[in-house]
Write a structure and sequence with these properties.
This is SelT/SelW/SelH family protein. InterPro entries: Selenoprotein_Rdx-typ, Thioredoxin-like_sf. Keywords: Redox-active center. It comes from Komagataeibacter medellinensis. Pfam families: Rdx. By secondary structure, the protein is an alpha+beta fold. It has one domain: Glutaredoxin, CATH 3.40.30.10. A four-stranded mixed β-sheet has the order 2-1-3-4. Strand 3 and strand 4 form a beta hairpin. The longest helix has 15 residues. It starts with 9 loop residues before the first strand and ends with a helix.
């Protein structure tokens, strides 16, 4: 069996340790691994400070707490990661709009 993890995308979740965001970062890593398991090479948690919370896929920034206004929900997180690693992939129910979204 050939290890292809070095050729698959790598997600990094940089989180502020002073803000106690480790559990949030770990939960997001778990969500991504559950959805994209074998499509990802790795998901790394990177401790930082200064209120930073950033998610990158390889070197592409897909979420930044200050820029994007808080933290992503699981739907937005998975869609943004998918848009980088597999833009044609259907995420099933996550890609469907709810009636509330249709009214806006």
């Amino acid at each position: 069996m050939t290890d292809t993890s070095h050729t698959r995308p790598h997600v990094s979740i940089l989180y502020c340790t002073r803000c106690n965001w480790l559990l949030r970062a770990g939960w997001m890593a778990q969500e991504l691994l559950s959805t994209f398991g074998e499509e990802l090479g790795s998901v790394s948690l990177i401790p930082a400070s200064g209120g930073r919370f950033e998610i990158t896929v390889d070197s592409k920034l897909v979420w930044e707490r200050k820029r994007d206004g808080g933290f992503p929900g699981p739907k937005v997180l998975k869609q943004r990661v998918r848009d980088v690693i597999a833009p044609d992939r259907d995420l099933g129910h996550l890609d469907r709009t709810s009636p509330a979204e249709d009214e806006s």
